[in-house]
Specification:
The complex is a heterodimer. By secondary structure, chain A is of the alpha+beta class. Chain A is built from 14 helices and ten strands. The longest helix of chain B is centred in the C-terminal third of the chain and has 18 residues, at 177-194. The chains are: A alpha+beta, B alpha/beta.
């Protein structure tokens, strides 16, 4: 006769209610783990999707994601000329925020070196890569844009031609990919007011110089459209992505290291920079929060099981007096703890399936989490039952004989 | 008939030094199989302490207890697995029925059968409930049973393992006089029909004719019952 099941049957509503509460608690613990895993995946998916052997960035920076990086565009040609390099691609990265359909839309805009890089390595789930240098965009599905839909940036429409899945930054922003040229247009787009203000500042500076004072006609030149060209002929890149022959990657890297104006990272180092810099603090915060939640859950389970055992003290004393083996009474408490854990985990799983997809940040339940969560729950309820088990051992059977 | 239980010079003290109370003072006692004995005496005289010592729940510090002529406790030290002895050879009936609250009437008896190593526990439990005329309440939980019904189920549970010795501690305290006598007669029937030794602690003097042997305790000492006012 299974005493644990008999006892649960008698107190079914309360037991299930308790297990449901535990399930809610566990679902929060698992969600925290999933949010962390999602954050790590989001942080690295952007670098992994580019499939580059080396990331060339501005010297002494951790760019382009963890830090700002400005590279002279000539680096692309310089990198391509290094023996062993198969391909060098320009890369830009910026986060923009626009109003769209009445909502605020944050986009991490990545510039791809079209036509060499048309986005073929990206996780495109619908549509295609970029087929032209201007006016096309590959957007992540989380932006809510449909294939064929146009988004206006810097006064120009960008038609969505492809959709990716889970292309997000470590900050949770959805990524859109355009050509480097288009990305630079968006980055250096200036409204007319800004242009006028800049011209006014230039005139002021000119008037403060001897040249400006002695040759006022120079001010007229500033009104000429050909003098209003941007100060920089070519805007800087965030990085240059290098694909090299497999056996020559190290050599290529050594060559580039000797250049005074760049720092070179491997794919793994780039990911480590992201995880160590951008995600580290969030990771620690979530980790500590998860530990506190797990301990809280363990203490609650411990008290629940202890109270369930305490309520049965007299029954347990009677059973001891009747000669019930100790193992059987300990089994009663342990089995109830495990049952509580099983139902709690099932509830947490169901909650996860139903509600995690609705979370604003991606909750990624990895295979490790799927494996560790039930084992950790089992360990937790087993440890939590220790207080109840010690109470069982302390119960004096003589207590059953006392009125 | 052989002695089901025999106690020799039991001594048990509660407290220490000047506050020590002697609960059992050189108590010797024996009870044969098939006989039913009553143990009377005022509160605090040591009756429950003797029941606990004979039931191997709380052994006396001094003296020996023999069970079926086998030394089981010697100067407070167990000579065998007392839990096993209780579940296989002893039956208990308490002042309150003390049924397991989360088991129904049949399961309470069935569990005792199982603990006592008796096969076909379910059928045996139903037979015992039938013998005690409560089989119609077999699916009821203790809280749904009357005091008398609970006590009958408790007696059925005490019989489940075919015990050699049944110890009953004021089993009729919560019952009216008619039911009280009925329970006492039941003990006599059990002792005579099944060959068990039954020791009943009671304050009820109205049914003493049911018993084969009468004892009384006073200040931790045991002696044959001399009648009221003696």
């Amino acid at each position: 006769m299974n005493l644990a099941i008999r006892d649960v049957r008698r107190r079914l509503a309360r037991f299930v209610g308790t297990a449901f509460g535990l399930g809610l608690l566990l679902s929060v613990v698992v969600a925290m783990q999933g949010i962390y895993a999602g954050m790590v995946d989001d942080a690295t998916i952007l670098t992994r999707a580019m499939h580059a052997d080396l990331w060339v960035v501005q010297r002494d920076t951790h760019g382009p994601f963890a830090d700002g990086s400005r590279l002279d565009p000539s680096i692309e040609a310089r990198a391509a000329s290094v023996p062993g390099v198969k391909r060098a691609r320009p890369y830009t990265y910026q986060v923009i925020q626009r109003e769209y359909r009445g909502d605020t839309m944050r986009i991490a805009l990545v510039g791809l070196g079209w036509p060499d890089d048309a986005g073929g390595s990206l996780p495109i789930v619908r549509g295609r890569g970029l087929a032209q240098a201007h006016g096309e965009m590959i957007a992540d599905a989380s932006l809510g844009l449909a294939i064929g839909e146009s988004l206006v940036l810097a006064g120009e429409p960008y038609r969505v031609v492809g959709l990716t899945k889970n292309a997000l930054t470590s900050g949770g922003d959805s990524v859109a990919f355009v050509s480097v040229g288009d990305a630079e247009l968006v980055a250096f787009d200036q409204p007319a007011e800004a242009t006028q203000l800049e011209r006014s500042r230039t005139v002021d500076r000119l008037r403060r110089t001897d040249l400006g004072r002695t040759q006022p006609s120079l001010e007229d030149l500033l009104a000429d459209p050909k003098w209003r060209a941007p100060a920089l002929a070519s805007p800087p890149l965030a990085a240059v992505l290098v694909d090299a022959d497999a056996h020559r990657v190290a050599g290529v890297r050594e060559t580039m290291r000797s250049w005074g104006d760049v720092t070179v990272y491997s794919q793994d180092e780039e990911e480590t920079l992201l995880l160590g810099g951008v995600v580290q603090r969030a990771r620690m915060q979530i980790g500590l929060f998860t530990v506190i939640l797990t301990l809280t859950a363990a203490v609650i389970v411990m008290m629940v099981i202890y109270n369930l055992t305490l309520e049965k003290s007299h029954d347990l004393a009677v059973l001891k007096l009747l000669g019930a083996p100790r193992s059987r009474l300990l089994g009663l408490v342990l089995q109830q703890s495990w049952l509580l854990g099983v139902i709690g985990y099932a509830v947490a799983y169901a909650i996860g399936e139903l509600f995690y997809p609705m979370f604003p940040r991606r909750v990624l339940i990895t295979s490790t989490i799927s494996l560790v969560a039930p084992i950790a729950t089992f360990a937790m309820v087993t440890l939590a039952s220790l207080l109840g088990l010690s109470h069982v051992l302390r119960i004096d059977p003589a207590r059953a004989l006392e009125g | 008939m052989t002695d089901a239980v025999r106690a020799v010079r039991l001594r048990k003290t509660y407290g220490v030094a000047s506050s020590a109370v002697v609960a059992l003072d050189d108590v010797s006692f024996s009870l044969r199989r098939g006989s039913v004995a009553a143990l009377l005496g005022p509160s605090g005289s040591g009756k429950s302490t003797l029941i606990k010592a004979l039931g191997f729940v709380s052994p006396a510090e001094k003296g020996q207890v023999f069970f079926d002529d086998r030394l089981v406790v010697d100067d407070g030290v167990a000579q065998t697995d007392l839990s096993r002895l209780r579940r296989q050879h002893l039956g208990f009936v308490f002042q309150k029925a003390n049924l397991t609250s989360f088991l129904n009437a049949r399961e309470n008896v069935e569990l005792a059968c199982e603990l006592g190593g008796k096969e076909q526990g379910r059928r045996r439990a139903r037979d015992l409930l039938s013998y005690l005329e409560v089989v119609n309440r077999e699916d009821s939980y203790p809280e749904m049973l009357s005091g008398g019904e609970q006590q009958r189920v408790a007696i059925a549970r005490a019989l489940a393992n075919e015990p050699t010795l049944i110890l009953a501690d004021e089993p009729t305290a919560a019952l009216d006089s008619v039911r009280s006598r009925s329970v006492m007669e039941l003990f006599r029937k059990v002792a005579h029909d099944r060959g068990a030794a039954v020791l009943v602690v009671t304050h009820d003097h109205r049914a003493l004719d049911v018993f084969d042997v009468l004892y009384e305790m006073e200040d931790g000492r045991l002696r044959p019952y001399r009648g009221q006012g003696a």
